[in-house]
Design brief:
This protein has three helices and 29 strands. It is mainly beta. It has a 17-stranded antiparallel beta sheet, with no helix packed on it.
Length: 411
């Protein structure tokens, strides 16, 4: 068996022993700061304890305190008969950052607080909440670092957040969501804001710069009107609603309405099912350019009308969705920009991409006079074509065949 020997490169002017010594010293110097901070030591009633060893904590009670290699406090945890349960505190650079209590399952249970963890005599609370077996319940409070109230939220027994009141650094209301009863007293007057003292209570919502960014109206906790504003103060969005339905409008920065959507509410679980019945789109000039209408059904809604307008205000085209002779049908009509009908025809509504043409399709000139007709059979095949002049006289009347040939239609 052969052995390969590798020689250590030693810089000129250095002995191998002195070189290795310097390398070792450098490694130790680099490792020393890391190991000092990496070491965590814990004690219980002044006696060292290994918190990772269940035998060391079995049956014991008291407050465990753990510190880093420099002796700075990292955490405190309460031990009860060998179980970590009760007060838990965590520190950052020796300053309290978080404090809460746990139950026998190890879940948070009771008051929980988060601190700013800033060095100095004052260490303000940033958040306070109540936990029940790991779930946030009741009122949660958040503060800015200067102690100004920043946000209130209310949570049901299952942890769902149902009410919110948020504030700017100046203490002005910036957001509001109400529930079925007042929940924030004495921290905030949501009884007045949410319309429990008088119906249809309206409050302004403020941006961080002090300007009004929105306005909201409640009636006994139910939203009835919501408005938001552009930075220039113009209306941006407006929503009006009640138990039966509502309408939402969107505006450009110059105040021109660009979109409107209306819906009804079908009673059901929770807040019920929202079913859109109307959607309108507007040009930057403010004129209506597109509209769609739906008819509510047992399973939702069915589109019944889709239409577009020219910018001069005349109808451009429309599509009606209806049932003819028991068959779902799409009937399309187009218009000249003078308002006269340009064409009309129907298609069977079969499949996602529409179905075959059916019946008689007609074409009209700018004056509204009939200029052409196309006849389709029940299978969507073109069987006959007619052309007329501006006096109404037929100039061509052809019968069409499957191979593409044609002949004059026999009367």
């Amino acid at each position: 068996m052969s052995i390969t020997r590798r020689r250590l490169f030693v810089p000129q002017g250095s002995s191998a022993s002195s070189f290795l010594g310097r390398v070792a010293a450098a490694l130790i110097a680099c490792a020393a700061p890391l190991s000092a901070h990496a070491i965590t030591s814990c004690e219980l009633d002044g006696q060292p304890i290994n918190t990772n060893d269940g035998r060391a904590t079995a049956g014991k009670s008291g407050m465990i305190r753990c510190r880093d290699g420099d002796g700075v406090l990292l955490r405190e945890q309460q031990l009860q008969n060998g179980v970590t349960m009760g007060v838990m505190r965590y520190y950052r650079q020796g300053v309290l950052q978080q404090e809460y209590t746990t139950n026998e399952r190890g879940n948070r249970d009771g008051r929980s607080r988060t601190f700013a963890a800033t060095p100095g005599p004052k260490n303000p609370v940033l958040r306070e909440e109540t936990n029940r077996n790991g779930t946030t319940v009741g009122v949660t409070r958040d503060w800015y670092a200067d102690g100004t109230l920043a946000r209130l939220s209310f949570h049901l027994d299952d942890g769902r957040e149902t009410a919110v009141a948020a504030f700017t650094t100046q203490g002005r209301l910036s957001d509001l969501r109400c529930t079925t009863q007042p929940v924030f007293a004495p921290d905030a007057d949501d009884a007045s804001w949410c319309g429990f003292r008088k119906p249809m209570a309206t409050v302004d919502l403020f941006a961080s710069n002090g300007s009004v960014k929105g306005r909201i109206t409640h009636d006994r906790g139910e939203r009835r009107r919501v408005e938001t504003f552009w930075a220039n103060g113009k209306l941006q969005e407006q929503t009006e609603m009640d138990t039966a339905g509502g309408v939402e409008r969107n505006f450009a920065e110059d105040g021109v309405k660009r979109k409107e959507v209306a819906w009804i509410v079908r009673p059901g679980e929770g807040r019920g099912q929202r079913i859109v019945t109307l959607q309108q789109d507007f040009h930057e000039s403010g004129s209506l350019v597109h509209e769609r209408r739906w008819l509510p059904t047992e399973r939702g809604a069915t589109l019944t009308l889709d239409q577009n307008w020219y910018l001069n205000g005349q109808l451009k085209d429309k599509t009606d969705y209806l049932v003819l002779d028991g068959q779902a049908t799409r009937r399309e009509t187009t218009y000249h920009d003078n308002g006269k009908v340009a064409s009309e025809g129907a298609w069977l509504a079969t499949g996602s991409y529409g179905g075959p043409a059916t019946g008689v399709h007609k074409r009209f000139d700018q004056a509204g006079k009939l200029r052409g007709e196309s006849y389709y059979d029940q299978r969507g095949r073109l069987k006959r074509e007619r052309e007329l002049d501006d006096t109404g006289q037929v100039t061509r009347d052809d019968q069409l065949f499957e191979d593409g040939s044609r002949k004059a239609y026999a009367r």
